[in-house]
Q: What sequence folds into this?
C-alpha cells in the first residue's frame, strides 16, 4: 500500500512533504559541485595530465594525446638513464644460512598451523559432544505429574507395604 504523504506516491503531485518542505535532491547538488570543479580545475588537469582529465570527464582519450600504440605521449621526453648495477654473488656459506633460515621459518609456520588445526579440532569435538549431551538433558516441569508416582500417595503405599509377615 503506497504512503499517502510520501513524495513519490501516486497521489502526490509534487516533491513536497506533508508540511510543505521539499526534499533535497542530492544528485543535483553533486552535479553542480562536479561542474564547478571541472570549470575551475579542469584546464590545469588537462594541461598537466590529459589522460586523467578525460578519464574524469568520462570520454575517450583523443588521438592527439596518443602515440601509435594507444599509449599516452610523454609530456616532456627525457632519455632514460642507465645506471650500472653491481650484482653481489653469494657464497656457499651464505646460501646455506639462507636455506637454514627458510627451513626454520617453514618449521615455525608449520608448527603454528598444526596448533591452529588442533585447536579447531578440539573446539569442533567439544561442540559435537555438547550437542550430544544437550539431547540427553531436558528441562522438566515441576508442576506436571508425568510418569512419576508420589511417594505419599495411597497407591504407592499399597504396593510397597508388606501385607503379611512370614517370620
A:
Amino acid at each position: 500500500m503506497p504512503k499517502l504523504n510520501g513524495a513519490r506516491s501516486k497521489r502526490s503531485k509534487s516533491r513536497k512533504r506533508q508540511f510543505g518542505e521539499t526534499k533535497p535532491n542530492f544528485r543535483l547538488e553533486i552535479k553542480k559541485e562536479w561542474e564547478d570543479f571541472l570549470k575551475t580545475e579542469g584546464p590545469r588537469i588537462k594541461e598537466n595530465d590529459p589522460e586523467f582529465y578525460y578519464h574524469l570527464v568520462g570520454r575517450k582519450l583523443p588521438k592527439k594525446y596518443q602515440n601509435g600504440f594507444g599509449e599516452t605521449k610523454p609530456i616532456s621526453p627525457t632519455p632514460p638513464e642507465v645506471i650500472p648495477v653491481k650484482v653481489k654473488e653469494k657464497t656457499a656459506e651464505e646460501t646455506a644460512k639462507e636455506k637454514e633460515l627458510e627451513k626454520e621459518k617453514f618449521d615455525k609456520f608449520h608448527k603454528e598451523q598444526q596448533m591452529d588445526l588442533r585447536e579447531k579440532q578440539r573446539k569442533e569435538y567439544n561442540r559435537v559432544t555438547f550437542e550430544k549431551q544437550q539431547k540427553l538433558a531436558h528441562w522438566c516441569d515441576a508442576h506436571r505429574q508425568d510418569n512419576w508416582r508420589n511417594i505419599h500417595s495411597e497407591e504407592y503405599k499399597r504396593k510397597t507395604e508388606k501385607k503379611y509377615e512370614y517370620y
Q: What stands out?
A: The chain has four helices and no strands. The chain has a mean pLDDT of 81. Residues 98-136 form one domain. The radius of gyration is 42 Å.
